[in-house]
UniProtKB/TrEMBL annotation, chains A, B:
Domain STAS: 538-642
InterPro entries reported for this sequence: S04_transporter_CS, SLC26A/SulP_dom, SLC26A/SulP_fam, STAS_dom, STAS_dom_sf
Ranges annotated as spanning the membrane: 61-78, 90-108, 128-150, 170-190, 196-215, 253-270, 276-297, 369-388, 400-421, 427-448, 460-490
Disordered: annotated span: 1-20
Name of the protein this chain belongs to: STAS domain-containing protein
Membrane topology: Multi-pass membrane protein
Keyword Membrane found: yes
Domain of life: Eukaryota
Length: 655, 655
């Protein structure tokens, strides 16, 4: 055949003279060119990453323009932006702001920061994203899960109540790191880090986090002074139990619950009548206004209703000096930044992809990561904490008819105005109303329907989902994530090494040999055992066990073999088409298998070994041990050869 | 077709009416029976484990007899044991003892125990193994790597020099745990735990450990009083540097080196003249005797030569009371026991399997583990520390012509005699001679040739080997093992997710479609793109990337596609024969791929999905989205269908 392995000097060439009387195509297996070394893919990835930005343009000016257009998509679509689109974006942006402002204050509370930090984070990051982002729908701002993550991880280092300054500085540093990580993921095209969390674990983790966040709101809802710093269910219920057995003021609870009820009722109306969705979107803001007025008029704060009190007016102050790149917590802060970066990206991608898919456009994952990274770096320098794409607000944004990221700009400007003018009005806002706004956003995070679907389709995935859920609920956010990642990876390893050995049979009327269990109509070939190794690996973890199973099949260990105990198996075809990786433990296993079979008078043939596999078998000299003439391109060729050989052997034995 | 999916009520059946004009065999894919659930394999394993011992005999007496024969193989082969075999075993046992006694004392020193504990461990465990083991060749006793492991891990808990009693008690408890773990691995057929360490990592780890052990011997060789407790190269060299800059006595070094030289020279003679191997085997004992005499006669101990001094005479004392199953270190001790259990089994299996393979018999892994477990449990109750099969002594045992485990008994009895009578003679034995005996055993543990072979065959395996080696050398024994395990598993995950997309072409003259890179003679099909997903998984880690790569191939991202930019791809066949697992992240990816392709006017066909894959695609409704008529058994069927369809489309477009 035409192919030669010229580039592999140490590997012998196999020609027809050695292996006569077999189909020519079989030679193809042995004379395949050398496979690319494992690091080639990696270097290719890096090369693509470096060269990708500019698409190799002719001049440096062109390169600069194309890089600029790549980095700032607004320059592309901004040229065609018209008044009609702007009107729609304006409406969407205002609706978004009415939901975003109260939510941001609530999430700042969840992150254990002063209320204005939530608003800061709804001002700078959306502006940056508006010029750099590729999604038209995502609404940027602080989100519940990341706020919880940030506070639960950072408060282990510094107590937010006794050292608010130091705590804030750590949060901002973590945000800075998160931005750096996100931008680097984008530049180096490391999108796969976001894929570390499977869909199932995200469903479980988000559900668990939602319940944890809800439980944290009991502090505000019940007006409790001394609450636990732990986030697990047991600690929180204990703390609540302890608090309600002290004398407590039910007013906070009443205000919170009545407004929560209001928000939920209006939302359910909005869900039924699509035209009224804006009513649902502005109810949180209305609730804030109403409850603040109520407290102000009745002076309820004198009777035990907790109010926000200290709110700083004015625009984002610079926080460059609060970023601490030295000090004892630098490592921990970087870790928190990494975790938040990944979780934030995961949420943003889930939101962005689902809406992009509905609206029929593709999200550029790498550009998204760069945009998110820059917005968080800029945010961390201007007193913002980690912002990302939010589920609830993106849905409102889309429902309100947003066309481009301009809706984010409109929202940011609205937040800017309220930061300048309206902050004083928040003085009398009851804390309980923030809790009820957060609580109202939680049902959307608990996706029982999806969990049921996961259970139906994939039990192992459901286990990962459940592990993440229970881990967050009864351990901590970290434990939940760790459980999820471990279960996901354990699943990969278990599946990869779940070396089933399948007996193959001929699909009637064809030359194809498929699993007899999957295709019960496939028929066995007499005097011949065709086994397929159903594992991508033949390595240290499973080589011995595969060897033992194959030998057990032949010496009568399995039922199918027992059925035809009368017959003698003379020939074993090992279909290795599924084995794509063999290592230095796998090769001796095949060698021993061959030795044992040969000593029992059984001939071993190998069909369709993977590219790396046949290469390594040649390198290790295994091909010469088995005999080049017993390696085939397809199972049917091996079976044909066996037919000829089997008869010869029979005659030689009887003769 | 004959097959029906009667046991899967929720899954629709597909018949010919829906999917006309396609080969009948294609229906087989859709109507395959439901695959066994993932836990079935596990439960099957447990069932086999429980039922296996007795082979389901008819009466309880028979069951008892067969269980007894299974547990004590000596009852089987003992009946045919004759005088000729005994004579050979006697000679082998005596040779073994002459090597084993000095080695055991040396290894006890390495384990930071008194010399007699090494001899204790060469008495009880070999006796137990002799009646329970299935290998005829393995020589049982303490070994270098496990001794190092035990001392380096245990001395972190208790200092062996200031609290020798407590230290010894922990070592014995760890030995007890090791025995329990080993026996349970055997009973529950968990042989795979031994496979956690790949061949490559064992080569690297053993090599690194040998160097570390060698460095530890500098203490005895140089007669250093204050040595470091760390095992890494840097600490040891620092300690030695510090010691040799103090006034020191060169006599220890002279004695050690001269006898080391003697042992090595005699061994090299033994290697050249196979008949003289026994000379090499008894040289260590001779060296002990000679050096002891030398010291006694010259009273060199008065001039700075360190001698053993305290040696307790008499048989193994009971150590039942020293096993501490309560207390603060119980968890740590169990961990040490587990690590030692696995490493000891790994070494024993490596030794046993290689000699069994040479001598043409099969080792029963589960029985071996039970035997090793019992021997270590019994050992821990009689003042022995972890024993296992030793490389160097097994080789001597085989060379000396052992026939059965009786040679182990002979050795044990010889040790027993010397424990009773000869211990006093060890009083004047110089410590340096123990160091030189240990040093002389090390070259066999450093297998540079094998490391080169690993480098040649598998670069990734070599990385694991190097990681283990450097980890042991510059970190600690634990770090080395951990590095090795992490690299090995990372390799599995990287390989499992290294989702290459291969373009397939037709092997000329056949209906087979194989990778065009592996088989350059394969030819492309016009108007048609056949892509194979070369990953066993389509899951959260790679689904997005696979989707993007497939789409990039079609929209002209790759060079091959650019070459035929003039042509329009109308039809994509996705060969999923290598994909055996899909999860709840993989299914949406295929769905999105299909949606995008359809919107571009490209038809997607799927060929040969794995059993679990097609089942989950049915469950998730993906089959209905793609259309049952676009799912095929083989690539060639899909290509045929595409040919028909492509022409139709062409005519409809041109018409």
């Amino acid at each position: 055949m035409g192919s030669s392995s010229g580039d592999s000097a140490s590997v012998p060439d196999y020609d027809g003279s050695k292996v006569s009387a077999r189909p020519e195509t079989s030679l193809l297996v042995l004379n395949a060119p050398e496979p690319p070394p494992p690091w080639q893919e990696l270097s290719g990835r890096v090369r693509r990453a470096v060269l990708a930005a500019g698409n190799r343009p002719s001049s440096s000016t062109k390169w600069f323009v194309s890089a600029l257009l790549g980095l700032f998509p607004i320059l592309r679509w901004g040229r065609h932006y018209d008044r009609k689109s702007f009107r729609r974006d304006l409406m969407a942006g205002l609706t978004l702001a009415s939901l975003g402002i109260p939510q941001s204050i609530g999430y700042a509370n969840l992150a254990k920061l002063d209320p204005q930090y939530g608003l800061y984070s709804s001002f700078v990051p959306p502006l940056i994203y508006a010029v750099m982002g590729t999604s038209r729908d995502i609404a940027i701002g602080p989100v519940a899960v990341v706020s919880l993550l940030l506070s639960s991880l950072t408060q282990k280092l510094v107590d937010p109540y006794t050292h608010p300054e130091a705590y804030r500085s750590l949060v901002l540093t973590a945000t800075f790191f998160a931005g750096i990580f996100q931008a680097s993921f984008g530049f180096f095209r490391l999108g796969f880090v976001v894929d570390f969390l499977s869909h199932a674990t995200i469903v479980g983790f988000t559900g668990g986090a939602a319940i944890v966040i809800g439980l944290q709101q009991l502090k505000g809802l019940l007006g409790i002074n001394h609450f636990t710093n732990n986030t697990d269910v047991v600690s929180v219920i204990k703390a609540v139990w302890f608090a309600v057995h002290q004398p407590w003021n039910p007013d906070n609870f009443l205000i919170g619950c009545s407004f929560l009820l209001l928000i939920l009722i209006v939302r359910s109306i909005g869900l039924r009548k699509r035209k009224l969705f804006w009513l649902a979107a502005i109810t949180p803001l209305l609730s804030v206004v109403l409850s603040t007025l109520l407290v102000y008029l009745t002076r309820a704060d004198k009777h035990g209703v907790k109010i926000i009190r200290q709110v700083k007016e004015g625009l984002n102050p610079s926080s460059v000096k609060q970023i601490q790149l030295t000090g004892p917590f630098i490592g921990e802060t970087a870790k928190i930044g990494l975790i938040c970066a990944i979780i934030a990206l995961t949420e943003a991608f889930a939101v962005g992809r689902s809406f992009a898919s509905v609206r029929g456009y593709q999200l550029d994952g790498n550009k998204e990561m760069v945009a998110m990274g820059f917005m968080n770096i800029a945010g961390s320098l201007s007193s913002c904490y980690v912002a990302t794409g939010s589920f609830s607000r993106t849905a409102v944004n889309v429902s309100a008819g947003c066309e481009t990221t301009v809706s984010n700009m409109v929202m940011a400007i609205t937040v800017f105005v309220s930061l300048l003018l309206l902050m004083k009005l928040l003085y009398y806002t009851p804390v309980a109303i923030l809790a009820s706004i957060i609580l109202s956003a939680l049902p959307g995070l608990i996706d029982i329907k999806e969990a049921c679907r996961i259970w139906r389709v994939d039990k192992m995935d459901f286990l990962a989902c459940l592990g993440a859920f229970l881990g967050v609920l009864f351990g901590s956010v970290e434990i939940g994530l760790l459980t999820a990642v471990i279960i996901s990876f354990a699943k990969i390893i278990i599946c990869a090494l779940g070396h089933k050995i399948e007996m193959l049979g001929r699909i009637q009327g064809t030359d194809i040999f498929y699993s007899m269990r999957q295709y019960p109509s496939a028929v066995e070939t007499p005097n011949l055992l065709i086994l397929r190794i159903d594992s991508p690996f033949l390595n240290f973890m499973n080589a011995n066990s595969v060897k033992e199973r194959v030998l057990a099949r032949i010496t009568g260990g399995c039922d199918a073999a027992k059925e035809r105990a009368g017959e003698m198996t003379r020939f074993v075809v090992l279909d290795m088409s599924n084995v794509s990786h063999i290592d230095t433990s796998g090769i001796p296993a095949v060698e021993e298998m061959h030795r044992k079979l040969t000593s029992d008078g059984v001939q071993l043939a190998i069909a369709n070994p993977g590219w790396q596999v046949i290469h390594k078998m040649k390198l290790a000299g295994l091909v010469d041990v088995i005999g080049a003439e017993w390696i085939f391109l397809t199972v049917s060729e091996a079976v044909e050869a066996a037919g000829g050989c089997g008869n010869e052997e029979d005659s030689s034995l009887s003769g």
